[in-house]
Design brief:
alpha+beta, two-stranded antiparallel ribbon, 10 strands, about 35% helix, DUF2993 domain-containing protein
């Protein structure tokens, strides 16, 4: 009898731990993501769904949803690996600053039935010099530097608007553009969207 009672108590403790974890762990993950996004200002609302909750310990789950505005995020670094563990991803930030880019809207959504593929849309504006530098960085090499110099040499300080979208695939966390629509200062926008997606994902 004592053994049976001890076994029953152990089961109750395990059930309470699993239930408590299911209630608490996603909220902790949501707060951590929101804190990272809001580090330099702005507001973010985060929803995480993971069943069972222990999936979060290895960066996995069923859903990651983020909405934010007024955020200030550095541009550069990061990978898409933090998104890859979730079946459904929906991230939208508006009226935010991403490095030198004034972003009116940046949206990242997972493609149903296509693991590690994301539709990314980017709208905003930036100075010609900033766009020139980013164009060169996105393309890389001598060609990227030459194109960046041309774009950066555009006359005036008036911000240039841009709007583009792309289908990205995450290869071990690194983004690869499958297809893109739109240009930034006359340069194909795939590379710039990769930089923006990486920068945002690094805070998730």
């Amino acid at each position: 009898m004592p053994r049976r009672r001890a076994f029953g108590i152990a089961l109750l403790v395990l059930a309470a731990t699993l239930l408590g974890g299911q209630l608490v762990a996603p909220r902790i993950a949501e707060k951590r993501v929101a804190d990272r996004l809001e580090r330099e200002g702005g507001q973010a609302t985060v929803h995480v769904r993971a069943l069972p909750w222990v999936l979060l310990l290895v960066g996995r789950g069923q859903e990651l949803s983020v909405r934010g505005h007024g955020l200030r995020l550095p541009l550069g670094g990061g990978q898409l690996g933090r998104l890859d563990g979730f079946r459904r991803v929906a991230v939208v930030i508006e009226r935010s600053q991403l490095g030198p880019l004034a972003v009116s809207r940046l949206e990242i959504r997972s493609v149903a039935g296509k693991p590690r593929r994301y539709l990314v849309g980017l709208r905003g504006s930036a100075s010609p010099a900033a766009l020139g530098g980013l164009a060169g960085e996105a393309l890389g090499g001598p060609l990227g530097g030459a194109i960046g110099s041309v774009a950066g040499g555009l006359a005036g300080d008036t911000p240039l608007p841009f709007a583009a979208r792309a289908l990205l695939e995450s290869e071990n966390g690194r983004p690869r553009t499958i297809g893109a629509e739109g240009t930034v200062a006359g340069v194909p926008a795939g590379g710039l969207i990769e930089l923006a997606a990486q920068a945002l994902a690094s805070r998730l």
